[in-house]
């Protein structure tokens, strides 16, 4: 356990990154922890944390836009395609080349074999705590 400004009983690998009331729904914070940038997101009241590093070419992923994505359905017989905007507020897009990631799971929407490393994060006594 270590002493911290918030007087929380934290282990050495646990870090306060924000007050919980500062990281409201739809907000994010990017914190520098042990020399690593970590993005923490509040999406529909749930917290998610990922390295600020894109699996494509290392761009600052967590600085990207959080919005939705387009799902397409193509009918081979009629050759028609229907597009639908969905998942608003849940998709993180890298600012460098636009790769999209599901911010609630870390799954990459562009490459099935690619997934972000999820970092443990929780609310504790009014603070957002990341374990790294
Ligand atoms: S570095 Fe993120 S999409 Fe290319």
Note the gap between the termini: 14 Å
Bound molecules: FE2/S2 (inorganic) cluster
- In the CATH hierarchy, what is the superfamily? Rieske [2Fe-2S] iron-sulphur domain
Order of strands across the widest beta sheet? 1-9-8
What count of domains describes the coordinates?
1
Largest sheet: 3 strands, antiparallel
CATH architecture: 3-layer Sandwich
How many extended strands?
9
Low-pLDDT runs of 5+ residues are none
What is the global morphology?
A: elongated
Structural class: mainly beta
Report the radius of gyration as a whole number of Å.
17 Å
CATH class: Mainly Beta
> Within the CATH hierarchy, at the fold level, what is the topology?
Rieske Iron-sulfur Protein
Total helix count?
A: 0
Written as H for each helix and E for each strand, in order along the chain, the element string is EEEEEEEEE
Work out the helicity level.
under 10%
Tell me the strand percentage band: over 45%
Give average pLDDT, whole number. Answer: 95
If you had to describe this structure to a student in words, what would you say it looks like?
This is Naphthalene 1,2-dioxygenase/salicylate 5-hydroxylase systems, ferredoxin component. Pfam families: Rieske. GO terms for molecular function: 2 iron, 2 sulfur cluster binding; dioxygenase activity; metal ion binding. Residues 14-130 form the Rieske domain. Keywords: 2Fe-2S, Dioxygenase, Iron, Iron-sulfur, Metal-binding, Oxidoreductase. The chain has 132 residues and is mainly β. The protein has a single domain (3-131), classed as Rieske [2Fe-2S] iron-sulphur domain (Rieske Iron-sulfur Protein). Helices cover 0% and strands 47% of the residues. It contains no helices and nine strands. It has a three-stranded antiparallel sheet, with no helix packed on it. The radius of gyration is 17 Å and the shape is elongated. The mean pLDDT is 95. FE2/S2 (inorganic) cluster (FES) is lined by residues 54, 56-59, 61, 94, 96-99. FE2/S2 (inorganic) cluster is lined by residues 54, 56-59, 61, 94, 96-99.
